[in-house]
Write a structure and sequence with these properties.
Blueprint lengths: L5 H8 L3 E6 L2 E14 L26 E6 L3 E7 L7 E12 L1 H11 L12 H8 L17 E4 L8 E4 L17 E4 L13
Antiparallel strand pairs: 1-2, 1-6, 2-5, 2-8, 3-4, 4-5, 7-8
Helix pairs in contact: 2-3
The protein binds a DNA duplex (13 and 13 nucleotides) through strand 3, strand 4 and helix 3.
Length: 198
Amino acid sequence: MLSRPALEVAPALLGGLLTTRRADGRVTVRITEVEAYEGERDPGSHAYRGQTARNAVMFGRAGHLYVYRHLGLHHCVNLVCGPVGTASAVLLRAGEVVRGAEVALARRTAAGACRSSVDLARGPARLAVALGLDRTENGADVVARGGGVSLVLPSTPASDLATGPRVGVSGLGGEVTRFPWRFWIAGDPTVSAYRRAP
DNA sequence: GGTACGATTGTCT
DNA sequence: GACAATCGTACCT
């Protein structure tokens, strides 16, 4: 399943449940917004210029996490997909905390402001904080049983899918922003409002 | 060895 | 609505 191209995996992840087990508690998030990144042929991807020490995880097995630091402040979480050697990945942009809300709230409060429960995991960096993920989780396997992170895919694909241009990517004179490689669950309040698609 | 820049967020106006 | 924050990585000298 996860070894398929990012463009096929991304919509299938919507509605899926991602659970992390930490010393301070367990948090489960229902994925509501994702973006596909097609590796070396995608100017918006970190892997566009080939394999490096930072993005090596993306070239590896599907089902591993690629966690990177952005602007020295935030963390963003990707799920690696596609066959080995292909740097496909799906960026997890937003979700709804369905279990462990108190734990997530404590983490979010420690990291900064949080206005409501809907904000707990709305936005890529917020999602990472709520799940307690940081760069030490880079390369973690979400498929292996007994790991600290696990993913449960929805038995049936989510309905009411919406697609639109990706957020915050540039290159090829804005060409890449035209691809509708962003997927979210239509009408879900936990989808990030940041530059919402028209 | 130095520098430019980024898959964002929170805060201020 | 605009902007500063902040640091690892990549790319250049």
